[in-house]
């Protein structure tokens, strides 16, 4: 059966169209994300440590980020033939939908496979560790967040650059190009960049304070 992806000559044997509508897929995504955000916000508000609102939002970011890497992207990474699914599996439906904005997920493009493999195996678990580090005020919190954000920013940069170098031909319509490829993909550039700036300032301030104390003593 023919598929809706670009390029049209992409070969996907036994492709099965989405069994859920676009709005339904987005609705379930939204509900799951909201529940995670709500739970983390409530838990962080009851922490024995006095957390700033920024730290609480960062805990939400790392929780959502980590779960997306481990669960959503983990499903894709270990399910190379998700596009054949006929059961209406939620995760298969998500990736059939997202592939309209970037068909490299359906074709298992080697660049995307490498980027997502690192995200699933390393970045996902480390993101949950970053959330824990913020909650407990661990000394490695800012270094870990900076390192993770740098990896996310670098991976996302490669994600966009490799698409552009190959002609930027992987979205089936302009709508999916801007709403999925640009907007959703760009999230993993914007937030990591902001977090890196914040962590850089905090680490530099801590180093200056340490130098000052060393000179005093």
Question: What is the strand and helix layout of this fold?
Answer:
Layout: H1 22-45, H2 53-77, H3 90-98, H4 104-107, H5 110-136, H6 141-165, H7 174-216
Helix pairs in contact: 1-2, 2-5, 5-6, 6-7
- By DSSP (H or I, 4+ residues per run), the number of helices equals 7
The secondary structure category is mainly alpha
Catalogue the unreliable spans. Answer: none
Total individual domains: 1
Percentage of helical residues? over 70%
Task: Tell me about the largest β-sheet.
Answer: none
User: What sequence of helices (H) and strands (E) makes up the elements?
Assistant: HHHHHHH
Q: Tell me the strand percentage band.
A: under 5%
Integer average pLDDT? 94
InterPro entries: EBP (IPR007905), EXPERA (IPR033118)
Domain EXPERA: 54-196
Family: Belongs to the EBP family.
Subcellular location: Membrane
């Amino acid at each position: 059966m023919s598929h809706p992806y670009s390029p049209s000559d992409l070969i996907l044997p036994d492709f099965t169209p989405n069994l859920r509508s676009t709005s339904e897929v987005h609705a379930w995504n939204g509900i799951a994300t909201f529940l995670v955000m709500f739970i983390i916000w409530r838990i962080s508000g009851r922490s024995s440590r006095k957390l700033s609102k920024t730290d609480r939002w960062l805990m939400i970011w790392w929780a959502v980020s980590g779960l997306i890497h481990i669960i959503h992207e983990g499903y894709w990474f270990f399910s190379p033939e998700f596009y054949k699914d006929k059961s209406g599996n939620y995760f298969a439906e998500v990736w059939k939908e997202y592939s309209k904005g970037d068909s490299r997920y359906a074709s298992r493009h080697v660049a995307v496979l490498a980027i997502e493999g690192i995200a699933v195996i390393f970045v996902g678990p480390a993101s949950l560790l970053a959330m824990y580090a913020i909650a407990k005020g661990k000394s490695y919190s800012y270094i870990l967040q900076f390192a993770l954000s740098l990896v996310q920013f670098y991976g996302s940069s490669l994600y966009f650059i490799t698409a552009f170098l190959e002609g930027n031909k992987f979205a089936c319509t302009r709508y999916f190009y801007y709403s999925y490829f640009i907007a959703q993909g760009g999230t993993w550039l914007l937030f990591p960049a902001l977090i890196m700036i914040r962590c850089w300032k905090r680490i530099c301030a801590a180093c200056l304070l340490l130098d000052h104390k060393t000179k005093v003593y």
